[in-house]
Specification:
Helix content of chain B: 25-40%
Strand content of chain B: 25-35%
Radius of gyration of chain A: 17 Å
Distance between the termini of chain B: 18 Å
Structural class of chain A: alpha/beta
Largest interface: A-B, 11 and 11 residues
Shape of chain B: globular
Radius of gyration of chain B: 21 Å
Structural class of chain B: alpha/beta
Number of helices of chain A: 10
Oligomer: heterodimer
Shape of chain A: globular
Largest sheet of chain B: 7 strands, mixed
């Protein structure tokens, strides 16, 4: 079972980035808890000291299964669907700038909130067209370097675009790129999906990455989700990717990550 | 147990035909109950795997022998449009192979040997049901595991036995220890690998068909391994006459060797007339449709029922076919006849009874006409698409 946890490489407003702040200390801690991977939230690859990062990852024996990109939206307002063409173009450029580093790590690029929220005055159909177009362009670039993009359906309280797995599957049909799939997150699915296990079955081999957080966005085990059923359904799809913890640092990041690890490892024989 | 093993793996592209909708138990891109509607461009590859680890209620088995089944052939065979022939539950890539036997290597703490009602000790000879029924759905709870609603099938949607090791739930394992007195060495495992197809026949003619009374006449249509096994079972059950209908001489000869009394070749003679002649105008008490061509053979069976003088004939439909059967209800009414569908091999005491029958002399091992190694499996599976002269080809693990 490949377990990872989300770490923000910069200070961030995003609440569910479990670890924030000192990179070295955090990587050491994550590795010490038993994790084999760390999912990096990177606002802008330019701000990363790549050499230092790689050497630290090697030092602590951590892989990078995926790169989160949502902070470019959260901190800078970049979006695939903003009314301003310059912002849309900048968002595409930003995602493309993640491709080289993702390729080095063998990581998936996550399309989270960078897709944006339909702003007042923008026709939702127009927003979807912009989204499909942006994804096609980014997937085209990423394919050249063997990188996959995974869009995360996000619950209705955080965005208006692609809330459910059904919408995610329709989007896959529209984007028509072999290196495009879905990132499923149990916290969002708990809000949007009728039956989480059924949705996982229907997404099947389009699932490229998987986030766990409980119903209250705390670590798994702190809420009321049935992770045994959810992970059974996931493994039945022959998912061989990572189970990545993205939850609130409550009561603190270390405790949350430790609890997540011990909860997930219970299901390694499902 | 650590280490690697090779597995003969079926790989195919998920490319649903227009109009295909994901079924209630299908998994997008991975698994479907309608194989021929979805999987395209099948290929057999020898891939490397980690030796699997058994869970608490599971057993790690070392495979000793595994027979090639017609469904293996049909999974690896594509029509002109590239879609596989096999219409049923499939999930690829999977290691194929589901008619097999072996020995227990390692058992989980809750795994039990049904023969002793105790935990496994290790080294027991065992075989398994191919259908991993869940035990929790309504059909299972009602006692119909062959109709499980959460079925997994070994060598169809989960990894099978064309390899060295396999993990299985202990609930579907059956001890082959009763065979040790009658079968030595390799023969024990070859016999064990024939338990599963023999159980398909047993389930059809005994469990579903209701069996026969000593002195009954029976007609088996189609001398594939299941049809041949039905000849052996019904002869031992006391049939006064077992007629095998088969177009290929080698297969008919095998049926005659294992229990059939007379052979009818429907390509060379009129099936209905000949059966009526051989039975003195009586017809038969039990017919088994094991050809997969019901639209061709059913009208002939119906003619025998209509013109023969036997009442209460039963027709057991065993082979899978998409074609509809042309049935005259009046024949069933006037002749008190019935048509019964049979599916699967699990439950109803089928496995232990077949194993005991084999232990007491129902020797099916002659059906295995060719023994091969793992590396020879792909070409042999593909050859079977056109060459039906071998009865059962058996992979013997090294």
């Amino acid at each position: 079972m490949k377990l990872s946890v989300v770490l923000s490489t910069q200070p961030a407003q995003f609440q569910a980035a479990t670890f924030k702040g000192n990179l070295k200390e955090n990587l050491k801690l994550i590795s010490g808890l038993g994790y084999g991977g760390v999912e990096l939230a990177i606002r802008d690859p330019k701000l990363i000291n790549e050499k230092e990062l790689i050497s630290l990852l090697n030092e602590y024996g951590l892989r990078v299964p995926a790169i989160g990109t949502g902070q470019a939206w959260g901190e800078e307002g970049l979006s695939f669907t903003g009314p301003d063409a310059g912002v849309r173009e900048a968002a595409i450029k930003r995602i493309n700038s993640h491709i080289p580093i993702a390729s080095k790590f063998g990581a998936i690029i996550i399309i989270g909130l960078i897709r944006g929220i339909v702003k007042p005055g923008v026709d939702p159909k127009q927003a979807m067209d912009w989204l499909v177009e942006a994804l096609k362009r980014c997937c085209g670039e990423a394919e050249k370097q063997g990188v996959m993009l995974a869009l995360e359906p996000i619950n209705r309280y955080e965005t208006t675009l692609i809330n459910s797995t059904t919408e995610g599957l329709t989007l896959i049909e529209q984007v028509k790129a072999k290196n495009f799939g879905l990132l499923l997150d149990t916290f969002h699915m708990n809000i949007e999906e009728a039956v989480i296990e059924e949705s996982i079955r229907k997404c099947g081999n389009h699932i490229l990455h998987f986030h766990v957080a409980d119903s209250n966005r705390w670590y798994p085990g702190a809420g009321h989700l049935n992770f045994k059923g959810i992970l059974s359904a996931l493994f039945r799809t022959r998912y061989e990717g990572w189970i990545s913890g993205e939850f609130l640092p409550e009561p603190d990041a270390e405790t949350a990550a430790e609890k997540n690890y011990s909860e997930m490892i219970k299901f390694s024989q499902l | 147990m650590n280490g690697k093993m090779k597995g003969v793996t079926l790989v195919a592209d998920w490319d649903p035909k227009p109009g295909f909708k994901l079924g209630a138990k299908d998994i997008e891109g991975r698994q479907t109950y309608l194989g021929s509607q979805v999987w395209r461009n099948p290929k057999l590859e020898i891939r490397e795997y980690d030796i699997p680890t058994p869970g608490p209620e599971e057993v790690l088995m070392e495979v000793k022998a595994c027979g090639i089944c017609g469904s293996d052939v049909h999974m690896a065979q594509a029509g002109e449009d590239g879609y596989i022939f096999y219409p049923g539950l499939t999930g690829f890539p999977s290691i194929l192979g589901h008619e097999f036997s072996g020995v227990v290597v390692e058992a989980g703490r809750n795994a039990r040997d049904k023969r002793t009602n105790k935990p496994f000790k290790g080294d027991e000879a065992v075989t398994t049901e191919e259908m991993l029924w869940c035990g929790q759905c309504k059909p299972c709870a009602d006692g119909y595991p062959n109709h499980c609603e959460q079925l997994d099938e070994v060598g169809f949607n989960i990894n099978g036995a064309y390899t060295k090791y396999i993990v299985l739930p202990s609930r579907t394992l059956w001890s082959l220890e009763p065979l040790r007195e009658t079968y030595k060495d390799e023969d024990l495992f070859v016999a064990g690998s024939l338990v599963e197809p023999t159980c398909v026949a047993y389930n059809a003619v005994i469990e579903r068909g209701g069996g026969i009374r000593p002195g009954d006449r029976v007609v088996i249509l189609g001398a594939g391994p299941v049809g041949i096994a039905a000849c052996a079972i019904l002869k031992r059950a006391g049939a006064s006459l077992v007629i095998i209908s088969e177009t290929q001489q080698e297969r008919a000869d095998m049926a005659l060797k294992l229990g059939a009394d007379l052979h009818v070749n429907p390509l060379k003679e009129d099936f209905a007339e000949r059966v009526l002649e051989l039975t003195g105008g009586m017809g038969a008490d039990l017919f088994m449709e094991a050809t997969g061509l019901p639209e061709v053979v059913y009208p002939e069976i119906e003619k025998v029922i209509w013109e023969g003088r036997t009442l209460n004939s039963r027709v057991i439909v065993t082979a899978r076919a998409e074609a509809k059967m042309p049935v005259s209800g009046e024949v069933l009414q006037v002749r008190r006849a019935s048509i019964i569908g049979a599916q699967g091999h699990s439950g109803h005491g089928n496995f232990p009874r077949v194993i005991e029958s084999m232990a007491s002399g129902m020797n099916m091992t002659v059906m295995s006409t060719k023994k091969i190694k793992l590396e020879e499996l792909p070409e042999n599976i593909l050859n079977l698409q056109t060459d039906r002269s071998e009865c059962k080809i058996t992979y013997i693990a090294e």
